[in-house]
Design brief:
By secondary structure, this protein is α+β, with helices and mostly antiparallel strands. The protein contains six helices and seven strands; from the N terminus they run αααββααββαβββ. The chain has one domain (2-154): Thiol Ester Dehydrase, Chain A (Roll). Strands 1, 2, 3, 4, 5, 6 and 7 form a seven-stranded antiparallel β-sheet that branches. This is Acyl-coenzyme A thioesterase PaaI, contains HGG motif.
Length: 161
């Protein structure tokens, strides 16, 4: 079934739809607006509603973080392929300004980063790339900056039986 869906709709489009229907995202009002076919660009939006508004009427910090949490890991997994282990290792969020309405985040992977990861992990060593994404409101004001550290390692070659 999954193979049929992937062939019919494309992997990026299918993942975009599934992520937007994922219960934690659906409940928080997070919508994945776009995933490029090569998984190097992702755009995410989160509205402001009673379900993600804090005591002072602005975007709840946990919702801001959750809207950006999985994407760098997913993008690296898709671009590096099955020969790599990719995990989130650490994250930090810096709240800059209150989110008083819809907020947006745009992720981008530079091909040079992918080359660097492949070079750093070629001998089987782990590599901890540090990536950053910014969350902006509708007028372009910076609301939060999220720093992510990922763990990447090339899987050992499969031994012949």
């Amino acid at each position: 079934m999954r193979e049929w869906l992937t062939r019919r709709f494309g992997k990026a489009r299918l993942l975009r739809c599934l992520m937007s229907l994922y219960p934690p995202y659906l409940g928080a009002g997070v919508r994945v607006r776009r995933i490029s076919a090569d998984f190097r660009e992702v755009e995410v939006r989160m509205g402001l509603g009673w379900y993600n508004r804090n005591y002072v009427g602005t975007q709840f910090g946990g919702s801001l973080y959750s809207m950006v949490d999985p994407f760098f890991m997913l993008m690296l997994m898709e671009n590096l392929g099955r020969d790599y282990i990719v995990w989130d290792k650490a994250a930090a969020i810096d709240f800059i300004a209150p989110g008083r309405g819809p907020v947006f985040a745009r992720f981008s992977l530079d091909p040079a980063l992918l080359d660097e990861i492949r070079r750093q992990t070629a001998s089987g060593e782990k590599y901890l790339p540090q990536l950053q994404v910014e969350i902006h409101d509708g007028s372009g004001t910076l609301v939060a900056r999220v720093d992510k550290t990922l763990y990447v390692r090339r899987k050992p070659p499969v031994r012949q039986a």
